[in-house]
Amino acid sequence: MAIHKVLGIETEYGIFVRNAPEQNPIAASSLLVNSYVSEVAQAGAGPRIGWDFGDEMPANDARGVLEQYVQPPDVETHLVNAVLTNGARFYVDHAHPEYSSPEVASARDGVVWDRAGEEVLRLAMTAANRTLGDDQQVIVHKNNSDGKANSYGTHENYVMDRAVPFNRIVARATPHLVTRQVFCGAGKVGCELPGRHDVTYQLSQRADFFEEEVGLETTLKRPIINTRDEPHADPQRYRRLHVIIGDANMSEWATWMKLATTAIVLAMIEDDWPMPELRPMTPVPTLRRISWDLSLAETYQTLDGRTITALETQRELCALARAWAAEHDTSVVGGVDAVTEVLGEWELVLDDLEHDRERAADRVDWVAKGRLLGGFAERHGLAPGSAKLRALDLQYHDLRRDRCLALRAGLRTLVSEAEVVSAIHSPPTDTRAWFRGTVLARFTDQVVTANWDSIVFDTGSSSLSRVPMMEPTRGTEAILGEMVASSADAAELLSKLNAAG
Questions:
Q1: Which GO biological process annotations does it have (predicted)?
Q2: Residue 299, H or E segment
């Protein structure tokens, strides 16, 4: 039986410093994160709380443990990692600032706390720029490529039942992940594979960078299905499906549908709902060809010999989801009303893309961006793939409000500004992220470190106290709200937690 799809998004942002004598993205990212955390601390949120790397094992593979995890150097673990009061993690990952959203219990909440991440980055830019000279400026983009064959990720995470065979996940999730780019691709000018000068615009920012169907890596030989076996929860009960193939969406609708449709497909897989063979015979080339084909007419051959388009695959998955929802408990993916809305939007966008894609320009990033670029190219007589169009492509993802083209594209909004502003500092109430963020805000001076599945307190006793949080749907306001609110300090809270068992 499918379990609740607790989920979240990790976004690595592009970064550079205007007028810097030389570009050092690691230093710039460190400046960005540290400036934000320092400014928050000055506003009364207390000292920086570092990330606890003790439970992380990114080298564990769902196909078998490969090697033990080696903890990063001190500079990574303490100087550029922070836990936020909204339950998120804000840190430097390789050469990029990364915002990892708190765990949420619905796709719509995924949008809220992803948007909160954008606002965190905007506040961080403002804070960082106060420390720079007048002629320098940190600029951040929510995109996935620097245009020089370097890609950075937007990763999704979904809690799944450990009992589900991993090969079933591979077989049945691959078709969705390969073809969903038709409605959640962010669009990109050009192609970053050597020799493909004929591709002047494509659906996805990330498709060019994938090389394997299944694998452990996330930065080299990127796989469609990532096998990292790091559940950040009870490993006997759960796995975390780490999806690295998505784009960074500026469209709230696209973020919502990316999360919602994938969560539904994964719930169907857990329930072993009958699904036809939709896997491509050659998944990686198929992924790329779909991205390169603006007509959406590109076909691929399934493992059972059928010839099908990405739109047709998505229509079959949507129909299967409707049949599944009629016979199963949909509360694991938001409930009847939420699923009905998702299925309706899923069908509608496929119809729009097939018959008149301009109707999808208020929802689908690659269509919205393509319309802006096409109009500009026509007015100025620009050739496809020109340098000016590449610059405008980047500007679509610019987080500076006065420069961001996505904010002028007429994209549909799903969540209110009030919700987003609240989510900058407040955690979701219905996952364990509530406990993480709330105790950090209330007992800041007594929190030593935190991570996804535990918090370490210093209550003044002879040893530190670790509170495990192995259940993603516990640690909520409904369960622990009164206990936290009535505790004068962390010691009292720990005593109550121990008494409650």
A1: modification-dependent protein catabolic process; proteasomal protein catabolic process; protein pupylation
A2: strand 299-301
Whether residues 44 and 17 share a domain: the answer is yes
DSSP state of 411: -
Domain finish residue from 351, 385, 419: 419
Kindly indicate the confidence band of residue 48, based on its pLDDT and cuts at 50, 70 and 90: low
Whether residues 261 and 219 fall in one domain? yes
pLDDT of residue 69: 42
Supply 383's token pair: 């050739």
pLDDT of residue 415 exceeding 50, the answer is yes
> Are 278 and 175 a contacting pair, CB within 8 Å?
yes
Q: Is 273 in contact with 17 (CB distance < 8 Å)?
A: no
Same domain as 393, residue 455: no
| Whole-number average pLDDT of the chain | 93
Task: Provide the residue range defining the domain that includes 408.
Answer: 7-419
Asked if 74 is an active-site residue, the reply is: no
Residue 61 pairs in a beta bridge with 64, 228
* CB of 91 closer than 8 Å to CB of 448: no
pLDDT score recorded for residue 148: 85
Instruction: Write down the pLDDT at residue 43.
Output: 55
Give me the pLDDT at residue 134, please: 80
Residue 143 CA to residue 396 CA, distance in Å, equals 9
Read off the pLDDT of residues 266-314 as tens digits, 9 standing for 90 and up.
999 999 999 999 999 999 999 999 999 999 999 999 999 999 999 999 9
Q: Which residues of 268-281 are buried (b: 16+ CB within 10 A; e: fewer)?
A: bbbbebebeebbbe
Catalytic residue among 52, 61, 93, 208: 93
Task: List the CATH number of the domain containing 266.
Answer: 3.30.590
Dihedral sign computed on CA atoms, order 162, 164, 165, 166: negative
Provide the pairing of β-strand 210-215 with 222-226.
parallel
Q: Are residues 308 and 441 located together in one domain of the fold?
A: no
Burial class from Cβ neighbours inside 10 Å (0-12, 13-18, 19+) for residue 336 reads: exposed
**Exposure string (b/e) for 70-93, b if CB count within 10 Å is 16 or more?**
eeeeeebbebbbbbbbbbbbbbbb
Percent of the chain with pLDDT over 70: 94
pLDDT of residue 62: 81
- Planar angle of CA 492, 497, 500, nearest 5 degrees: 125
DSSP 364: -
Asked if pLDDT for residue 64 goes beyond 80, the answer is no
- Quote the pLDDT of residue 70: 46
Could you give the angle at the alpha carbon of 482 between the alpha carbons of 481 and 483, nearest 5°? 90
Amino acid at 453: D
What letter does residue 70 receive in the DSSP assignment?
A: P
**376 lies in a domain?**
yes
Number of H helices, E strands in the chain: 15, 20
pLDDT at 56: 65
Residue 75's SS3 state is helix
Instruction: State both tokens at 43.
Output: 């506003």
